[in-house]
Queue: 2 jobs
Job 1
Amino acid sequence: MKRRDFLKKGLGAGLMAGAFLKVNGAGTLAGTNKPNPAKPYDLVAVMGGEPAQMFDKAIAAMGGIGKFVKSGQTVVVKPNIGWDTPEELGANTNPGLVARIVEQCLKAGAKDVFVFDNTCDTWNRCYANSGIEDAVKNAGGKMVPGNTENYYKLVSIPNGKRLKEAKVHELILNSDVFINVPVLKHHSSAKVTIALKNLMGIVWDRRFWHRNDLHQCIADFGTWRKPDLNIVDAYRVMTRNGPRGVSQADLVMKRSLIISTDMVAADAAASRIFGEEPSEIGHIKIAHEMGVGNMNLDELNIERLRV
Amino acid sequence: MLKTVSLRWVRRIVALTYFIVFAFAFIDFSNTLSPGFINWFLYPQFTPSLLKFIKVGGIVATGFVAVILLTLLFGRVYCSAICPLGIFQDIVARIRLKRVRYKFLKPWNIIRYTTLALVVIFALAGSLFLLNMLDPYSFTGRIFSDLVRPIYYGANNLLVRFLGTFNSYALHHVEYRGMPWQGLLVTASLTLILVVAAWRWGRIYCNSFCPVGALLSLLSRFSIFKLAIDENACTACGRCSRECKASCIDIKSRSLDFSRCVACYNCIDSCKEGGIGYKYAYAKKTVDPIQQVDSSRRGFIATFTGMMVGATLVGKSLTALAQGKGKGGGRGRGRGNQADNNDVSQESTAGHRPNSRLAPVTPPGSYSQKDFLNACTACHLCVTVCPTHVIQPSIKEYGFFGLLQPHMDYHSGFCNFECTLCGDVCPTGAIRPLELETKKRAQIGKVKFHLGNCIVRVDRTDCGACSEHCPTKAVYMVPWQGLLLPEVNEDICIGCGACEYACPTTPYKAIYVNGNVEHQVADLPEDMDDGPREWDADDFPF
């Protein structure tokens, strides 16, 4: 599909969706899509810098970390640490970015900043090899295991169609602030993995999702709890052989970062950076239709920044 | 007579220190001890060292030579100071509240040398089965890896729960998984028998069933220094005999059967007259109780030689038998019916068709199933150190005679791409250490896709868990009716089992690994050497 065609179709779908769902905080439907500094941004996108640097700029444009983290609160940061691979292979969230998020949260007065993932490869090797463990510890955060079922508590998902309940890591349930920090990657089964898909790493039984319509389950889980902030690492982007990657040949240096409180919007913008139309990604489309968020970027107040 | 320091205390300290480290190595889940340390720590273990020497060679495999030399000098020092099973039995006997009063027993020579001969026959015939069941090093490894490890894990998890009430994540839960109950039962039964025997009769195992004990007892007949009773000092009080857990001191004839002496030195300390100590065994004209044993020495050697000749003959015929039988490889988990793959109905039958794994998978670095089975003593050190719990004791995968020798159990875990630990620690050479880059291409099996079990095909929803986990993308997804369906490329598959482990279908998987009876080298995925590309966009695409 050509981009122009898509935009036309997307706009149509957006109008309908907007009419039916009254998407919260939706900006103009005119399609001009000029940023409006007078209103809070729905999404901030940055390109051209190092991950930590881009985050600083993006969070400032969002109104500062203090808007999301209050003094004395506990914060859980959920990066993608799924694979026992080094930073250079881009399979995990950038460690420098995670460290800077931890630092900012602590600076805002957070009591504790916890970081974990329910990894695919052996958890402690992923934590170490990704560089995230060291980065987080140096920044003053705490790495938390998520390797056994004991850490996960059953929650119900009233709005889920296929996924009615799931076991979720206790940190997500106990912390005051939940920050979702996916890395943008190609994904062999979900096409792309961004914010919505990253939440598979806070639940215990992923096999159930794979058995029961993966895209629907990802969207269903999105209805359960919105992260307070989604920060998409699109610095080293794995454009094929995802989500694990085979070599650096799978990567494109896109040096971008997206930040939004809306998972679906973040996923839509990141999909574009990846080179896919959001409406072509099953779980993004379903999540949009279920009202998890808004994938119609034209309707959002977006700030675009460069470093 | 040399008796300056208490040899018993030296032995006790050495043995206890060694034992504690040994036990820890077999229960630790954090890989605290480096593989290099473990290699040298296990250097003096007789059986693994001997097998490794035959298999690989190298200085690190000369431990058994050191033990032989030590035995030829001072007798079976190994049995009390280094042998973990010997020390284990001593500890069992020691924790009795009422101390055992041992008494002299006649040697069970027929049993112990027949056992040794049978172990050798089996080994020559290509099965380490008997050796593995009886070898003291491997037996102790299993006691700790199979039986004590879950208790250790449980204790850790209780502590984690306790810390959790203080919101501390300093320690973490560990999962004891994958161990087949049959394996647990075998180890538990053998251990129970051993504990009862050690409780009641001291070192009866070492002088009746232990192949290493039997071999060293043959050697100790030629020891240069032997423990002996000084007849001039002996008052026949019998204290030494009551202290002798090997039951080898006959106070009536004031003699000490050095071939059964495990060199614990309890007798030395027990003798108020200082009448027991090491003595040069080849001194001229000694009227020495050892002579009594010596008279029968020739007989033993003759018998043993006879047995060995017999063993070789029987062994040859057994080898022929085993080779004929072994052709089919190991047995899989059920009979296959892949033929009816095309019969795909619309209702969800994903994972309902059994697979036909033609051969079990042996760990990377084992080169071939035969190499592996001929060198692995089933000590389960690899089972303990494996971070993914993919290495598990086998039950019937290699047939009965391969019982407890580990295999790759892809229902329990998958082989971590970046890991070489099993080969790094294996003391027998059954799993040889591989450089990481070599390991990443060691093809231990090949992927098989069973379309009739696949979610995508059967339920018509996206899944792709197999491809997701594949480290080489030997499993990749192709468009199929608006969905993505797995396809496999065996050439770049290394057989790590990530796909099989991740596959969500039950009870049978839609993708599995068929073991390579002979390991191969996988092809490299394409254009591995290219670096990351630059992005040509100069503006946001939204």
Note: DSSP finds eleven helices and twelve strands in chain A.
Job 2
Amino acid sequence: MNNKEKEFLELIEAHKGIIHKISKMYMDTAEDQEDLFQEIIYQLWKSYDSFQQQSKFSTWMYRVALNTAVVFFKKGTRKINGSATIPENMAMEESSFAAKELQLAHFYKAVQKLERIEKALIFYHLENYSHREIGENLGISEVNARVKLSRAKTKLKELIKLQGYEF
Amino acid sequence: MNFDDLQSAWHSDKGNDIVVPDSVAKLRSAVTPVQHIRRNMRKEFVVMLVIIIAFPFFPLTVAKGLALVPFYAMYAAMVILTVFYFIKFYLFYKRLDTVTLNSKDSLYEVYYDIKLNIEMYRSFNYAIIPLLLLYQVMVMISLPSRGAAFANRNVYFIIIFSVTFLVFMGIMLVFVEWWISYFYGSYLKQVKKVLDELKEE
């Protein structure tokens, strides 16, 4: 393994959580999530030369990862079947950890029903990007980013409420 | 829950149990539209290569007695056409790497590259199909009985022959359009749908 590959894999190891989260937002089954996870790393490696330390690795990585995810289509024509499940025993748990797990489970289930760009908007919002930065990364105006994000948040909220979870 | 809670839960999920492949060679690329197109193009290239290699032996084996000069002249035209288009396809194949642009630009690049490739693919087929059918004609008229019918200007035979030629041509072109829409058009529609989501409001 050469130095470039070693350095790349170290960066991926440090950011694997975020790649996995993007995969979970865009795909609803473990198999598809794994495929997307690998595809993102593959695309990052392929375009690694274009990352010339000009920006933060995470900023560059988010862009490549989301661009890969928005044009990633499942094998065959299976429809989303809502296979993301909510752990039942967690509903009774009081601990902060369990509460967060439950919130994320509801979030991942609901987010499957959003459109691809809406998912990207929600992702950037959760990563604390401003409207201007979201617009820059998606290639749309700041105003458009604000309008679309607001709509996506409302939609997500409604979807989580439909699951019987207060939002 | 509100968005602040969700954000806090989001950041607390570090994904420590996720396993990253220990070498890039172990990564497997999957099913982006572009990958599908590349895979299809690779397969079609292999098929075309087999045809090109096998074709020159045709008059020496299956259709002995064929007029060699027109046959090889048409073969040369077919090779030139194929080489020209496959160089274009190869350049397209090498070019498709736009993931580092912003999402809108990246999607537009992918969309127009696929569209351009479909048009090239269509024009390649529209150029090669008549050539292949002409080969068929050449083989048929070189058969002694059919050749005599042409030489004697047997109108009935020539009409039947022309209609069959046109019908075959029509069937081949309909097939090409179906093939394009089935293997390539669906990806174009999927990418277009995502692009439409980015429109200004």
Note: Residues 31-193 of chain B form one domain.
